[in-house]
Specification:
It is a single chain. It is built from twelve helices and eleven strands. The chain is an alpha/beta fold.
C-alpha cells in the first residue's frame, strides 16, 4: 500500500445496536494499532454506546487484550433512535433493524456528499431489516442502490498472521440458491466481475499486472464434459477470450475447485506438503463462481480477520466478515480483530485511490 500523510475520513455505522457491532467498534477504536490511521466518525446513538461501554467495563477482565474507547472521546453522529438508547443485548427487533438501517443510510449520504472517503460497516441481521420493512439481501445491495450502480462485487481480503501473505477472493454470484448458480453465470457476468477485479487490484492494491485464478464450476472443472458441460461449452472459451482482451493480466483456469485452494492454504500457514510432486502457484486474486466455493476457504483460513469490501462503489466500503452474534452480545467476549483490519484496509484503500488519482 502507498504511504501517505493524507488522513482518510471514515464513517463507522455500528450495525444492529443489540448485536456485537457496538462492542467491536469500541474495542477496535481503543486499540493503539488504529492511532492516527484515520479521521473516524461513529454513527449510532451516544446513549446506546455509553450504555454498552458502561456495561462492558464491568465484564471485561483487567488482563484483557482489548481496551474500550470511551464514547465521550469519540466523534459520534446520532440519528435520534432513542428507543435503542439502552440495549437489550441479543434481542433484536424491528426497532433495532430500523436503527441499523438508519445508521448505514446516514453513512452513505455522507460518503455520496464527500464528507467521508469510506465506510466501515458494522454487522446487521438481514431478517431484522426485513422485519423493519427493508427488503435487501444485505448491506452490499443497499449500498449499490444508493450509489446508483449496477456493476459491483463482494470482494474478501485477509492477511495471514503467520506469513503476511494476502488472500483476495471475489465472488461471481452471491446470495442465491445453489440451484440458480449455473443459470445466473454467463460470459457477460464474469466479464463484468473480472473487469471490476482488475480495476480494484490495479487502482486500490497497486498491482499493475494482476495474476488471477478462475475457479471451475463442476467437480474437476467438468472433466472434459463428463461431470458437466459448462466449462467446455463456454467457460474455457471465455477465459481464452479474456486473455486476448487483457494482455496486462495473467489468467489461470478454470482450475478444479478441489485443488484451487491448496496453494493459498500453504501460503497462509507457511507449510508445504512434502509428499506433493509439485508446488501449486499462488495468485494475486481468486475468482470464485458461487458463495460457498469462495467463502468456505476464506472462513476456514481467516474467520476472525477476513474483510468484506464492496468493489465498484464510488467510495471505499469495508466490513468485518462476521455477523451480529446475538448469542454473545453483551458478554464482553467479541473479538474486534476483523473490525480493526477492516478499518486499516479502508484507510489504505482510500490512500491508494488518492495516489492513483494523483498519478492519473
Amino acid at each position: 500500500m502507498v504511504e501517505s500523510h493524507y488522513l482518510p475520513r471514515l464513517a463507522i455505522p455500528v450495525g444492529d445496536p443489540v448485536g456485537i457491532g457496538p462492542e467491536v467498534v469500541l474495542k477496535a477504536l481503543g486499540d493503539p494499532l488504529l492511532d492516527g490511521v484515520a479521521d473516524i466518525c461513529v454513527i449510532g446513538e451516544w446513549s446506546s454506546l455509553e450504555a454498552v461501554y458502561e456495561h462492558l467495563e464491568q465484564r471485561i477482565d483487567s488482563h484483557s487484550a482489548w481496551n474500550l474507547a470511551d464514547p465521550k472521546k469519540l466523534h459520534i453522529v446520532e440519528t435520534q433512535f432513542n428507543q435503542c438508547s439502552i440495549p437489550n443485548f441479543g434481542q433484536p427487533s424491528a426497532e433495532t433493524g430500523t436503527a441499523s438501517f438508519a445508521y448505514l443510510s446516514r453513512a452513505i449520504t455522507g460518503a455520496l456528499e464527500g464528507t467521508f472517503d469510506g465506510i466501515v460497516t458494522g454487522p446487521i441481521a438481514k431478517s431484522v431489516w426485513k422485519a423493519a420493512g427493508h427488503h435487501y439481501p444485505g448491506q452490499t445491495e443497499y449500498l449499490a442502490e444508493r450509489a446508483q450502480i449496477s456493476e459491483f462485487g463482494m470482494f474478501f481480503v485477509a492477511s495471514s498472521p503467520y506469513t503476511g501473505w494476502q488472500l483476495r477472493t471475489l465472488l461471481a454470484t452471491t446470495h442465491i440458491p445453489l440451484s440458480e448458480v449455473s443459470c445466473q453465470l454467463s460470459p457477460e457476468l464474469l466479464a463484468m466481475k473480472l473487469g471490476l477485479l482488475k480495476k480494484t487490484l490495479q487502482h486500490e492494491f497497486g498491482i499493475e499486472h494482476p495474476r488471477i485464478a478462475i475457479a471451475g464450476l463442476n467437480p474437476h472443472s467438468g472433466e472434459q464434459g463428463q461431470l458437466g458441460r459448462e466449462e467446455i461449452d463456454w467457460l474455457i472459451p471465455w477465459v481464452e477470450e479474456m486473455r486476448s482482451q487483457h494482455p496486462d493480466m495473467t489468467l489461470a483456469g478454470p482450475i478444479s475447485p478441489d485443488t484451487l485452494w491448496v496453494a493459498p492454504g500453504q501460503a497462509w500457514y507457511g507449510s508445504r506438503a512434502k509428499t506433493m510432486d509439485f508446488q501449486p502457484t499462488t495468485y494475486d486474486a481468486y475468482l470464485a463462481l458461487y458463495h460457498d466455493q469462495g467463502l468456505i476457504p476464506v472462513k476456514l483460513m481467516a474467520f476472525d480477520r477476513a474483510i468484506n469490501t464492496t468493489i465498484g462503489l464510488p467510495f471505499v466500503r469495508t466490513s468485518p466478515d462476521h455477523g451480529t452474534a446475538f448469542d454473545i452480545a453483551g458478554k464482553g467476549v467479541a473479538d474486534p480483530t476483523s473490525m480493526i483490519a477492516a478499518i486499516q484496509l479502508a484507510a489504505n484503500l482510500v490512500r491508494q485511490r488518492q495516489q492513483t488519482q494523483t498519478d492519473l
